[in-house]
């Protein structure tokens, strides 16, 4: 085990032997498997958490879930944050991985960010991606975004709405495309529906811009379905500024059921995505305490006071 002792900086190896091993390592451009090393050389479970999500409400629930699960599993979390949906600096990710980890949990949108995934895959680190779809080499923990959006759109149509607005999320996330696909599936099925779509990025600011765009149009929507609660809350704010009654003159629906859904007036009708449980399940599966493979958790429509049938 002389080579292992040199790699791990242990004593008990002659200087001449150590030098020879080091020369061989350099010639082979050898990089140790840091994930394996963390399991062999330490009894401490160190798990990296990479996050960069513009929704503060989503991140609050995610971090609560992952911290509670870490406490249960005896794992130590090392957090690395990016800004506004962008990854943390790649050298910082490389340094974190090189420190030795049992695995990494990544939040949307980082679970589908190729530069991040390339670093993690190259190091052989196990990956659990929350909210991601079909990521090779990772366990994805999510809900059925398409079905959830389909069901919410059907709910709005059943109330009599025939002029619908839809606000997209981050275009780099598969969940955004899945939610839009569910929306359009319900619209096509119903027929005779006038649709307006605006681009957002899951942030409150993008919801303000999208809400203004939709409501400034001629013959604006009677109901707007936003791809998350932060953007839906922004639409409610725009409606208030325009002296529109919610839900009397405009219905607004969200997605996630975060604290943002119940801290404004009227409280949002939304899709309950169990963010807390998604985070906990991702960590549990990463540490081998759940069924292998991807995991799809249940969702449900939560009816509150921001949605009603159209007037007239």
From TrEMBL:
Keywords: DNA-binding, Transcription, Transcription regulation
GO function term, MF aspect, one: transcription cis-regulatory region binding
Domain HTH lacI-type: 1-41
CDD domains: HTH_LacI, PBP1_SalR
Source organism of the structure: Sphingomonas spermidinifaciens
SUPFAM superfamilies to which the protein is assigned, alphabetical: lambda repressor-like DNA-binding domains, Periplasmic binding protein-like I
InterPro entries (alphabetical): HTH_LacI, LacI/GalR-like_sensor, Lambda_DNA-bd_dom_sf, Peripla_BP_I
Domain of life per record: Bacteria
Entries under PANTHER family matching the protein: LACI-RELATED TRANSCRIPTIONAL REPRESSOR (PTHR30146), LACTOSE OPERON REPRESSOR (PTHR30146:SF153)
Pfam families noted in UniProt: LacI, Peripla_BP_3
Name this polypeptide is given: LacI family transcriptional regulator
């Amino acid at each position: 085990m002389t080579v292992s002792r040199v790699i791990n900086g242990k004593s008990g190896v002659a200087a001449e032997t150590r030098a020879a091993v080091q020369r061989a390592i350099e010639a082979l451009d050898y990089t140790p498997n840091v994930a394996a090393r963390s399991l062999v050389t330490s009894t401490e479970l160190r798990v990296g958490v990479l996050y960069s999500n513009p929704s503060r409400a989503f991140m609050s629930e995610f971090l609560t879930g992952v911290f509670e699960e870490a406490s249960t599993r005896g794992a130590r979390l090392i957090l690395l944050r990016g800004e506004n949906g962008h990854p943390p600096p790649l050298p910082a990710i490389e340094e974190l991985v090189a420190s030795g980890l049992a695995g990494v949990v990544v939040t949307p949108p980082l679970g589908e960010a190729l530069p991040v995934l390339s670093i993690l895959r190259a190091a052989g680190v196990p990956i659990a991606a929350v909210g991601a779809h079909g990521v090779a080499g990772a366990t994805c923990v999510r809900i059925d975004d398409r079905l959830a959006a389909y069901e919410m759109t059907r709910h709005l149509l059943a109330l009599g709405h025939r002029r619908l607005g839809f606000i997209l999320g981050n275009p780099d996330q598969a969940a955004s495309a899945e939610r839009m696909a569910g929306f359009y599936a319900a619209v096509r099925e119903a027929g005779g529906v006038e649709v307006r779509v605006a681009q957002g990025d899951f942030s409150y600011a993008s919801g303000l811009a999208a809400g203004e765009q939709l409501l400034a149009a001629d013959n604006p929507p009677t109901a707007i379905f936003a791809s998350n609660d932060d953007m839906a809350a922004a639409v409610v704010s725009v409606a208030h500024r325009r002296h529109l009654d919610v839900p009397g003159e405009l219905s607004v629906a969200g997605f996630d059921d975060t604290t943002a859904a119940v801290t404004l007036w009227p409280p949002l009708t939304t899709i309950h995505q169990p963010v807390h449980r998604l985070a906990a399940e991702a960590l549990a599966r990463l540490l081998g305490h759940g069924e292998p493979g991807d995991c799809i958790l249940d969702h449900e429509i939560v009816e509150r006071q921001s949605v009603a049938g159209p007037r007239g």
